[in-house]
């Protein structure tokens, strides 16, 4: 059972879970969403720190609510108010915060920075987004796919746009769950090569497929799920990105015509309306983005339950 592996453990990336364990976690999230969390208080008397080195709406609020629902006390910390912004190391910060808190949810820059924090910390650390990955987002995304498509095997998910942290985690999740993942990005903006190679191994193990391509129309062809994210992520500068080349990757009504009739459209949010996705599609009948955002809460409740349960 997955709860033994996650129990008292860090959750820094999806690498730590095999396909069955990931599926168990997503199914547990669905169960908790349907049945509610009444009486389930694994965080009773526990204080969970939520440290944000970048802005956040969904992750911060959904973790804060999840911790409270599970009987714990969330404590939100922003970088600007902390000594890390005046030069204290991330490791020293992790070491000290572990003396007050029972767990830490951290949004930061490099994955190595998160790993330094986690190595110094003596309590479980959860990745709330790094430049490399966003595993909690991928948990909610898989919960959304399960709700709308009923299963994972053979479901075609086409991700269009920047091969960023969200794309990296989606590739890991999808290839561990037997899905057909296609990532179409402008040249030079493909997902992390090392993670693509890693996911190639998951394809062999779990019978999934992964195509990295540059043609958005081909990628969208017969897709069950179309997914996009912002073209400029937190910590990046618009002037450093070839935004002209991104334009043909916009998720719009015309592109949707290539997908299956029952395609669902996903976006981790926040969206830049009229940039990577049109308002017509974001607000249209295929969009499931608000359920997807809600699912951050349910997925994290399941995750926290397994770590602290
Ligand atoms: N999707 C997501 O992580 O949103 P926030 O940046 O608002 O937390
Ligand atoms: N790729 C985006 C995701 C935000 C939730 C970023 O890193 O800013």
List cofactors, ions and other ligands. phosphoric acid mono(formamide)ester, norvaline
- List SSEs in N-to-C order: HHEHEHEHEHEHEHEHEHHEHH
Q: How many distinct helices?
A: 13
Q: Helical content, roughly? A: 40-55%
Largest sheet, in brief, is: 5 strands, parallel
Which range does the strand content fall in? Answer: 5-15%
Q: What general form does the structure show?
A: globular
Number of strands: 9
| Mean of pLDDT | 97
Q: By CATH's scheme, which homologous superfamily of the largest domain applies?
A: Aspartate/ornithine carbamoyltransferase
CATH architecture of the largest domain: 3-Layer(aba) Sandwich
Distance between the first and last residues' Cα: 13 Å
Domain module tally:
2
Q: Can you tell me the CATH class of the largest domain?
A: Alpha Beta
**pLDDT < 50 runs, ≥5 residues:** none
* CATH-defined fold name of the largest domain: Rossmann fold
Q: Over all CA atoms, what is the radius of gyration? A: 19 Å
Strand order of the largest sheet: 7-6-5-8-9
Structural class: alpha/beta
What does the secondary structure layout of this molecule look like, with pairings?
Layout: H1 2-6, H2 19-35, E1 47-52, H3 58-69, E2 73-78, H4 90-100, E3 103-107, H5 111-120, E4 125-127, H6 135-149, E5 156-160, H7 165-176, E6 180-184, H8 193-206, E7 209-213, H9 216-220, E8 225-228, H10 243-246, H11 253-256, E9 264-267, H12 279-282, H13 289-308
Parallel strand pairs: 1-2, 1-3, 3-4, 5-6, 5-8, 6-7, 8-9
Helix pairs in contact: 2-6, 2-13, 3-13, 4-5, 6-7, 6-13, 7-8
The structure holds phosphoric acid mono(formamide)ester and norvaline.
């Amino acid at each position: 059972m997955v709860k033994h592996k996650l129990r008292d453990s860090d959750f820094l990336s999806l690498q730590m879970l095999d396909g069955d364990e990931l599926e168990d976690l997503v199914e547990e999230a669905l169960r908790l969403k349907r049945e509610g969390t009444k009486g389930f208080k694994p965080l009773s008397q526990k204080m969970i720190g939520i440290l944000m080195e970048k802005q956040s709406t969904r992750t911060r609020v959904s973790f804060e609510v999840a911790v409270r629902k599970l009987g714990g006390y969330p404590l939100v910390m922003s970088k600007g108010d902390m000594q890390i912004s005046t030069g204290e190391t991330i490791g020293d910060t992790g070491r000290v915060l572990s003396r007050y808190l029972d767990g830490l949810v951290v949004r930061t820059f490099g994955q190595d920075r998160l790993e330094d924090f986690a190595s110094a910390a003596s309590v479980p650390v959860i990745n709330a987004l790094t430049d490399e990955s966003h595993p909690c987002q991928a948990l909610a995304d898989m919960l959304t796919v399960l709700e709308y498509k009923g299963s994972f095997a053979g479901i075609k998910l086409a991700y269009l746009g920047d091969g960023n942290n969200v794309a990296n985690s989606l590739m890991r999740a999808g290839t561990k769950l037997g899905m057909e993942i296609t990532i179409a990005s402008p040249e030079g903006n493909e997902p992390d090569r090392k993670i693509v190679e890693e996911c190639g191994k998951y394809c062999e193990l779990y019978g999934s497929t992964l195509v990295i391509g540059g043609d958005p129309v081909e990628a969208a062809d017969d897709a069950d799920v179309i997914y996009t994210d912002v073209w400029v992520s937190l910590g990046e500068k618009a002037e450093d990105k070839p935004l002209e080349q991104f334009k043909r990757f916009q998720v719009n009504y015309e592109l949707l015509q290539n997908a299956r009739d029952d395609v669902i459209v996903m976006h981790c949010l926040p969206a830049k309306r009229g940039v990577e996705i049109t308002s017509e599609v974001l607000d249209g009948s295929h969009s499931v983005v608000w359920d997807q955002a809600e699912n951050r809460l349910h997925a994290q409740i399941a995750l926290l339950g397994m770590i602290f349960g």
